[in-house]
Amino acid sequence: MSESKIKYNEDWLKESVSGLGDGVGGMHWLIDGFFDKASEFLVVDPGVVERRTWEAWVLAMQYQRAFFRVSMAESGSRVDCLVDHRVWNLSSRPLISAFNAGDWPGALFEAWTCRDFDYARFLADVPVEVLWCAGESQGTRFMRDAYAWVEVLQAFVKGDPRAGVLLEEARELADPGRASFAAGYAGLMAVPQMDVLGRLIERDGDGFNEALVRALEAYREYTAADLAKGGLSGIVPLELLGMACLVRDGRVEGVSLEVESDYFPEGILDGRWLDAFPI
């Protein structure tokens, strides 16, 4: 990516953030754009050696965090949200279909990579029923395993002992042999991610690293075609990176990270930028 493209991305991010001053109505249209821009920075700086790459990564999380918080706020209230080094006092907004079980897991894993555990707990308290009502309010339908996956992750964040049982139920629902469509995604993405989380739930250190290696190999296989076309889906395995960050920081008792991978941006994994600015 050329310096002119980097400058364009930086300007796009700044302009998009400044739009918060005009209200929160169109936030949902820009969330994917923030993550795409962050991924493009990672193409140039895969190790996150430069601060601007970390800033773009955090900004993507902050923008979606603001969207989730104003969406869950009481009608007519206002919420202070830190976005791009500034606290914005934003009005609440009605729940819409962009507040859904498909995007919720990514928000949690992104929170883990940025070490925003208050946000992770906030996400864990979002009722699954709210995600269902909002996410399917305009005709979109999510498979049952999407909601089951949210329930597992919420239980894990809360330390709920039911997490293991819930995971088994979610895994059965995501079984590629039962999937009516998207069997490739289920087999190479969803199930391997569940296997990694399962080892965390069980505090199985050896099993975690073995499952992580398999999941990274499956991720490479699933995203190879898109990456070959210049797509961004194969840049970073967000779900696996989020779990690796938890383990790297020693937040899962009995589990240590023994796997090295070029898929894991070192500057995110080791937390070197965490004290650079408030997150």
Description:
With 279 residues, this protein is mostly helical. It has a domain at 1-94. 59% of the residues lie in helices and 4% in strands. A two-stranded antiparallel ribbon has the order 1-2. α4 (104-113) packs parallel to α11 (238-248), α5 (117-124) packs across α7 (144-158) and α8 packs antiparallel against α9. The longest helix is centred in the C-terminal third of the chain and has 24 residues, at 205-228. It is globular and about 50 Å long.
Beta-strand fraction estimate:
under 5%
Adjacency order of strands in the biggest sheet = 1-2
Unreliable runs: none
What distance separates the N and C termini?
27 Å
User: What's the average pLDDT?
Assistant: 95
Note the run of SSEs as H and E: HHHEEHHHHHHHHH
Main beta-sheet annotation: 2 strands, antiparallel
Helix fraction, binned, reads: 55-70%
What's the Cα radius of gyration? 18 Å
Count of DSSP helices?
Answer: 12
Overall geometry? globular
Organism: Nocardiopsis alba
InterPro entries: Imm49 (IPR029074)
Protein name: Immunity 49 family protein
Pfam family, one: Imm49
